[in-house]
Amino acid sequence: MARVSDIGIDLGTSRVLIYMKDRGIQLDQPAVVAVERDSRQILAIGEEAEKMIGRAPGNILVVSPLRTGAIVDFDLASTMLKAFVSQVIGKRFFSRPRAVMAVPSGVNETERRSLISTMFDVGTKRTQLIHRSLAAALGAGLPIDSSYGTLIVDISAGVTDMGVISMNRVLVEDSVKVGGDAFTEAIIRHLRRKHHLLIGMRTADELKIHLGSATPRAEQIYMDVSGRNMISGLPKTMRIYSDDITEALEDPLRQLTESIQSVLEHTPAELASDIFEYGILLTGGGAQLYGLCEAIAEALKVPCSCAEDPDKNVVIGCGRVVENPQELKRYLDDGRKRR
Q: N or C: which end of the chain has fewer CB within 10 A?
């Protein structure tokens, strides 16, 4: 009989990552689907679909089935998930692998059950869910069975999930629709308002990655970007400095900081004391924003650090459960009930 390799899945808002037992991360693809507008025929998924953003003709929609932590088109999300899982495990008829999956916080109970059913259809024997905060903590190597409190802030593209963990459980949790996409959209709005320059998501993402900073940089850096002048309607190239991007990010960063503060205010006193002593851990792709830890620490007067490889913590956490199912099965949820 063929050897079965179980899998761990991070079904994120912007990317889908899949970990295979004994092999590590086997897939890291954009959560993007290109579909023909009228027939709904799938034309491309993942990287091939992402290349079409901003370039596709009017009869082709290039969409993200998940947005702000929720599934906005379940059929497309299901099709995308099937394609990615099939790419990793192939066709399984007799030796079905098991799966551990972390899903965005905004996915409702009906969708959770439907995702589990989708995974069975694509060839898995059984799929169990894991809380994103627990998966991120496991992936970061935290001792979450300790009685000390730990605050995990997982900043993904569409949503930030926050969870206070102690003794294997998420005791206080919240989410806010602020993440990497909100940072990008804030940059677009700022340049349009201040410089009358219209740019697309791809250009704004480049500005966020190369110039983005939560605090003013000691030394200014810049990029020359091309867009459209909102007044003349003509193409325009402008030099954008890092301080401009820092200014653009002020509003979403304030929302993020206020949400973290709200979680701390609702945390039991002893656990809050632990967090004030040991600090906050940032995970997720958005945690890589330059100066973010320093900005949060300064605003809340709490130590703050960023996990190693923050964008992979959740899938690595799922992988740890896959590698040690008997030891770590207590973290799983079969989808029929939630903590």
A: N
